[in-house]
Amino acid sequence: MLKKELRSSLLKKRRSMSETEWREKSDRLGSYLQNFSLFQKAQTVLAYISFRQEPDLSLLFTNVGEKTTFSTKTWGLPRCVEKSLFWHIWQPGNSLQKGAYGILEPKLNAPLLQSSKVDLILVPAVACNFNGYRLGYGGGFYDRMLSQEEWTSKPTIGIVFEFAYLQDLPIDSWDKPLDFVCTENGIK
User: pTM for this structure?
Assistant: First the structure.
């Protein structure tokens, strides 16, 4: 199956989930991330705000209860500018605005986050395969970013629901595998 058809099929399946199913799966996925040592050790994490029923990471942003380190993390959220992602420091409660693609993103005046400060990247995806390769939305934003030297050594975790964790995906020569994949069934 070609990337375009596979992407369309998986996005349709994702949109067909009920609000309850989406929330439950997102929260389970978030719990696995919270308990993952790589996440626990990371001080600065690049993340995203859920769009079109992507797995929702808000559990990570809001779980600042007793003796957790989540309140001490620095979060980075992307802003799409032309063909690039610019990462801004964001903390829960900071306002967001709709960007060029309708995705919530930091305001233009939010402080920029330098790649040298980043410890972990949570990568949104339409699908990931068993070898860590990712099917994105087709814009190439993450492919371009992750191929730049300043980002190649940063640990990455693809974020998908289990139905989108596949044995095979069409792969292009420029695709780079992610280090881990997290679903509502665990970290692989």
Answer: 0.92
